[in-house]
Amino acid sequence: MSYLQAVILGIVEGLTEFLPVSSTGHLTITEKILGLPLDDPSITAYTAVIQMGAIAAVLIYFFSDIWRIAKAWVKGLFRPEYRGHFDHRFGWFVIAGTLPIGIVGFALKDVISGPLRSLWWVGGSLVVWSAAMVWAERTARQDRGERQLTLKDSVIIGLTQCLALIPGVSRSGATISAGLALGLDRVTSTRLSFFLSIPALTAAGLYELKDVVGSDIGIGQTVVGTLVSFVVAYASVAWLLRFVAHHPITWFVPYRLVLGGGILILLGTGVIQAT
After folding, report:
1. Which pTM value belongs to this model?
2. 261 exposure class (CB count in 10 Å sphere: 0-12, 13-18, 19+)
3. How far apart are CA 98 and CA 121, in angstroms?
């Protein structure tokens, strides 16, 4: 992998990680355009590793919130009077919401890095999940805020997050849609989506790091891709929070349909190959 390819992939990751358009799907498409082998485990691992740049952006952007929640959670482990505080409970909500994707991701790691690395999955999922996003917005009550969040909500949203292991679905698209379907307002759903991304993507990146280090992909290219991802993702986080406060996530559906439909047409006519 060249440094130019690393920069391009870092930009794509940073732009799409937190938008409901599927960062993995976009990275898969970009890798295909750049001539990188989609079925190479090291390329799959690289995709996971540079996501940690985006997670670093979330950690910095929400640092004060994360620090406050972490302190309350730790204190609640030893002092009963803190266990009723929302921040302590929110810490447990994030843990409970993260467990499903950790279990499913580990159990299906060979499928994720193998059969699912196909543009058929990317194109099909971009189209199909768009319908779920439209349904979530149309049925959304948005009558509950962050303080009304429950453990049940977090588990259901965490289970839905597992669908994002399919390229094209979108982790943020899945979690925000699930939150809306449960009656949470759009900003609360989006904030929870950001918090759930931290342990999930960090664990995936650290786990896949060994496959990048032992491959032909250079350490320099990995560092560059991760740094570029961080810079671009930081701007994306700030923009998305402002955007969802006033706009439905269905604004992204036309783009998803055009991209997904275009991929399926190109695959069906034999212009491009799936892997």
Report:
1. 0.88
2. middle
3. 24
